[in-house]
Amino acid sequence: MRNYRLLLVLVLSLVIALNVVRASDESKVHIVYLGEKQHDDPEFVTESHHQMLSSLLGSKVDAHDSMVYSYRHGFSGFAAKLTESQAKKLADSPEVVHVMADSLYELATTRTWDYLGLSAANPNNLLNDTNMGDQVIIGFIDTGVWPESESFNDNGVGPLPSHWKGGCESGEKFISTNCNRKLIGAKYFINGFLAENEGFNTTKSRDYISARDFIGHGTHTASIAGGSFVPNISYKGLAGGNLRGGAPRARIAIYKACWYVDQLGIVACSSSDILKAMDEAMHDGVDVLSLSLGAQIPLYPETDLRDRIATGAFHAVAKGIIVVCAGGNSGPAAQTVLNTAPWILTVAATTLDRSFPTPITLGNRKVILGQALYTGQELGFTSLGYPENPGNTNETFSGVCESLNLNPNRTMAGKVVLCFTTNTLFTAVSRAASYVKAAGGLGVIIARNPGYNLTPCRDNFPCVAIDYELGTDVLLYIRSTRSPVVKIQPSRTLVGQPVGTKVATFSSRGPNSISPAILKPDIGAPGVSILSATSPDSNSSVGGFDILSGTSMAAPVVAGVVALLKALHPNWSPAAFRSAIVTTAWRTDPFGEQIFAEGSSRKVADPFDYGGGVVNAEKAAEPGLIYDMGTQDYILYLCSAGYNDSSITQLVGNVTVCSNPKPSVLDVNLPSITIPNLKDEVTLTRTVTNVGPVDSVYKVVLDPPLGIRVVVTPETLVFNSKTKSVSFTVGVSTTHKINTGFYFGNLIWTDSMHNVTIPVSVRTQILQNYYDEN
């Protein structure tokens, strides 16, 4: 298998980068982007692609053999196997906007909906007002689907939506009858991956060469957003209840573009396959598109066609499709958020009001509550140890979790072992457990930064996480006792108070590294320990269900909410849904407590952690006012961001000439205000559209960032049957005399029924980080 560079696809915190090395005369897949379609007949478009290739290669046969995909629905282009010299000839053609080499992407619950106020038992909520999302189609580009899962039963589901043009494609262990009125579409895309990886053996691969899901990630995300009702589901006795997706009567369309690579133990997705999946989804009639995929830092600019998700999403949004993407799992570091284009709805991950306390009882009868997903038998009082040199030997001892294998087996055999780690990944826990088990140990207690991800250890081996303070308490007990012992009891499920909502440690944070004036992420949603359907082939599957964490799980939560809103407001633009979700979000948890952001030190969450806040579906259904945008607004953004006319033309597919002077990026009509470099006073503009009562009057309420003056003109907005939209200006100045970090506040329009809130983030920069030489 060749080495290749992978852009991350968010399964927990996995990030792998591999580089492409090929000879210059070797054929490899290139994506030839031609911009907007010049004809509505897709067969005509494809024929024009074949003619272009035939002219280049000299024959129709060679053109047919070279062609991988024809993109003919959302935009015009094709993927073909070309040498570098052939690609250059095509790139020089006046009909061609851009030619780029293919690349690969790699893959990045029951309580959720009650927590978000969408209980099926309540007859008067958004869930029931929209008939649970019936007739709305959610598309997923992922690892496929396990169609037999009960989460995709079509009990009580009506006829197919009239706007559906897709279907189900047969393949390995998948036939068209695997689909039903719930799972209405299933296609797979592997040509790009195979063209780049000719050594991939489709007959020996454990993955299915069809839309069937092998690892379970796609099944999990699809059932989170739109899974049907499944009663009495639990995971080893934890997180149990009646399982369903956010929009349980929405229809699901699967586009498998991600494939398990046995030799590397990873999942990879060719960008040409992803683009083809997006192109097909646009043709098929999906209303919402959910992707748990993303690039690595440093990001490509939005006009750089190597960012295939931003490119495909631009065309999807232009056709009215809401594109929801995971924000990444590289938190808590700043400037790590992914999928930052302003036409994408980018999602951060938060916790639920649920935890899994696991009692640890020391020999001195002190009880410590750790966190685990341990469902085995109680481990009675057992010898407890911490590997450290007693001072009379030259042997190696280590209490670091990742180095437990360096210790003599006798230090761990028959014991529960305490270790410490600074590693943020769950692999530190799983390795520690495997080392202790291999040495004959009986369990492991891992002291680490609080808030990191929970996953059961293999074979239900007792592994419990505690923070450094509690870990130090345990270590002091070990050192003060000749024969320390410990008892570990099975984990329990605790829901509601006193468990608070937090932004997950792994969730990638802003500011936006490409365009700091564009707030990302947009919104937060539950993405920690989410129970949902999976493939029975998954190693951690229990009865076809699994608990997973990541922004991969948070994105489909929002996709499910958007599906409900789409059923209620079928004519809204994608930007309107984003605005409604951001301006109505929770900024406190359901108990009115502040939401904190987990990290190296816990802090109160701010817009760079979770955008507008935690998604509040009920409020988003009636936002009052929206900050709307269309394709032309996104083009104005691209001009304001400093991209040149030719690069914007490449993305848009039509000749674009920016005005001179260029518009201000601060005027982009987002439901947020982010000023990364404030020195002198600035004035920016926003426009709001009334989607509430026709005759409405809104007054402004300001909560300015510390040391920042904010003046809004006018202070009152009046709407009636003739006045649907009103613009206002915001003057912003600083009282700070030095460079500062970001300070945060809010701008609120209220009519006593609605509080339309947008976050305001301002950083004073008296001395800029860079300057232009005169």
UniProtKB/TrEMBL annotation:
Residues 133-590 form the Peptidase S8/S53 domain. Residues 1-23 form the signal peptide. Residues 407-472 form the PA domain. It holds the Pfam family Inhibitor_I9. The keyword Protein biosynthesis does not apply. GO terms for biological process: proteolysis; response to fungus. PANTHER family: PROPROTEIN CONVERTASE SUBTILISIN/KEXIN (PTHR10795). Belongs to the peptidase S8 family. This is Subtilase family protein. It comes from Arabidopsis lyrata subsp. lyrata.
